[in-house]
Amino acid sequence: MINFKEEIINILNENIEGLNKDEIERMVEIPPDYKMGDFAFPVFSLAKIYRKNPAIIAEELAKKIESKYFAKIENKNAYLNFFIDKDILAEEVLKETIDKKENFGKSTIGRGKNVCVEYSSTNIAKPFHIGHIRSTVIGDSIKRIYQFLGYNTIAINHLGDYGTQFGMLIYAYKKWGDKKKIEENPIDELLKLYVKVNTLAEEDKEVKEECRYWFKELENQNPEAVEIWKWFKEVSLKEFNRVYKMLDIEFDSYNGESFYSDKMPALIEDLRNRNILEESQGAEVINLDEYDLPPAIVVKSDGTTIYLTRDLAAAKYRHENYKPFRSIYVVGSQQSLHFKQLKAALKKAGFDWYDEIIHVAFGMVSLEDGTLSTRKGKVVYLEDVLNRAIEKVREILDQREEKTSRKIENKEELAEIVGIGAIKFQELFNQRIKDYVFNWDKTLSFEGESGPYVQYVYARISSLLEKGEFSLDKKFDFSLLQGQEEVDILRNLYNFTDVVIDAHNKFEPYIITRYIVELAKNFNKFYTQRPILVDDELTKNTRLLLCYSVKNVIRQGLDLLGIKAPEKM
C-alpha cells in the first residue's frame, strides 16, 4: 500500500526549511478525530525559523502544498491537516485485501531478529491462581505481536522450581505425604504439605534444619531428593498444562531456576575475574551506587545464591544461545527494582548487550467482590475462573435457545471460545501498568467494549459473506464506497499495521484491543446504515469485499490477543 505518512514527510521536507526528514517524521501526528484529518502536522516549531505567527505559516504552507493523494490539506489552529483522497484510500486498502487475503496487515520489520519473551513463570507445587493471568496473557499477546511482525520468538516459562521451599516439601512428603492423593490432586495436596511444614518449621528448629538438609541434598544431587523433586515438577506441570491448553498458550522452553544451578559457579567466577564483586558482611555483592541503586547480592554470606544470581546466569545463557534482539521479561511492577539491578549489574560487568533486557511491568488484578465460589479455599485458582466464565456463557446461550426456539450448533465449544476469550479480552483491554478490578457482567456482555461483542461482530460478518456467496473472483467497484461509515472503516483498516507496530513499540496489547473494538463499532454503524445484500450485484460484491476485509482484520486482531474467532454465534 501507499505509505501516506511517508508521502507527507517528503512533501513537507521539500517545502520546509530548518527541519530534516527525521524531525518532520517525529512531528507528524494521527489526530484523535478523523474530522481533523488522517494526519496532522503542528507548525509551532517553525515560528522561530520563519519569524512568523504559526497560524500564518500553516496557511501559507496549505496553499503551497499539492499532492494527488490528498483530497484537501487545510490549516486549522496552526496545524496542517491532511485528508486522504477517498477513492485512493478505498483502492489501496481493498487491492491489498485481495492480494494479501488473510495475511492483510502483516509486516516483516522483524525478519532475522530473535526475541525472547519470558512470561507466566508459575511456581512448581503451588497454585496456578488468578494473579498469574496478567503475566500469562500479556506475555502471550506480546509474543504473538512480535511473530506477526516477522520476528522469530522464543517463548520462555521460567518455572519457579528451585530454592529452599523444595527442601521443605521433600521433608514434608517423606514425613506425611501420600503419593496416591498427590497424583489425584497434586497442587492442593502439595500446598497442604507446604503450609503444614512451614508452620511447624517456625516453631521447631530441628524441623527447620531437616528442611535445610534436604535442600542441600537436592543441590548435591542426592538421588532420592532429585527423584522426589522431579516428580513434584512432573505432576505440577501436568496440572499447569491443562490450564495452558484452555488458554491456547504454548511455550518453547520450560527452563526454570533449576536449569541455571550448574551455570552459576562459572558466572560467579567470571564476575570475580571482572573485579566487580565486593565483600560486604561476608557476602559478595555488586556495588551499584553509580546507578543510584542498592547493591546486587550475588553470593550470600552462607555461600548460597539468590534469585538475582540465577537471573544473571539466565540472561547470559539466553544471550549466548538465542542471540536476541530483545529479551523481554513480563513480570509484575513489584519487581521493577530487581530488573533495574539486573540490567545495571550486567552493564557494570561489561556485558555490552545489557540493553537487550526489557522489563515489561504490569499492575494487579483483583476480584470485584473479593470472593469467588471455589473448591480451593482461600486461593482463587485460574482454572476455576475460566470454568466459571464458560459456565456463565453456557447459561446465556441456553437462555438464547429458549427465547428463539433455535438450537445453537456446537454450544459447548462456543461457550468455551466465548468464555475464555472474554476473560482474556477483559484482561487485555486495560493498560498493563494499571491495576484493575475484574467485573463479571462487563466481561461477559455481548454489547459494548467486550470480547463477546467483537466475536459476535465477526460471526455476523461470516454469516453475511456466506449468505451473499462472496468470492474474490467477482467484480468490484471501489468508487462505490464513499459513505462516511465506509470511509471510517477504510481508515481503520489502513491503520492496522501501524497499530500493531505501535503495540510492539510500547509492549501494549491493549492498543490492539481498543482498535478492534473501534473497528467492530464502525462496522456495526455501516451495517445499520448501508444495506449489504442488495439486488445490484456490483454494489453487493463491493460492500461484501469491505466486510471480508473487516473480518480478516478482526480475526488477526483477536489472534494477536490469543482469542479465537467463532464463525457462528
TrEMBL record:
List this protein's GO terms for biological process: arginyl-tRNA aminoacylation
Question: What's the EC number here?
Answer: 6.1.1.19
Q: Per its record, what are the GO molecular function terms?
A: arginine-tRNA ligase activity; ATP binding
Q: Coiled-coil segments, which residues?
A: 386-414
Q: Where does this one sit in the cell?
A: Cytoplasm
Q: What Gene3D superfamilies would the database entry show?
A: Arginyl tRNA synthetase N-terminal domain, HUPs, Isoleucyl-tRNA Synthetase, Domain 1
Catalytic activity line of the entry: tRNA(Arg) + L-arginine + ATP = L-arginyl-tRNA(Arg) + AMP + diphosphate
Q: What class of enzyme is it?
A: ligase
The record's GO CC annotations read: cytoplasm
Domain Arginyl tRNA synthetase N-terminal positions: 6-84
Please report the name of this protein according to its UniProt entry.
Arginine--tRNA ligase
> What organism is listed for this UniProt entry?
Peptoniphilus lacrimalis
Encoded by which gene? argS
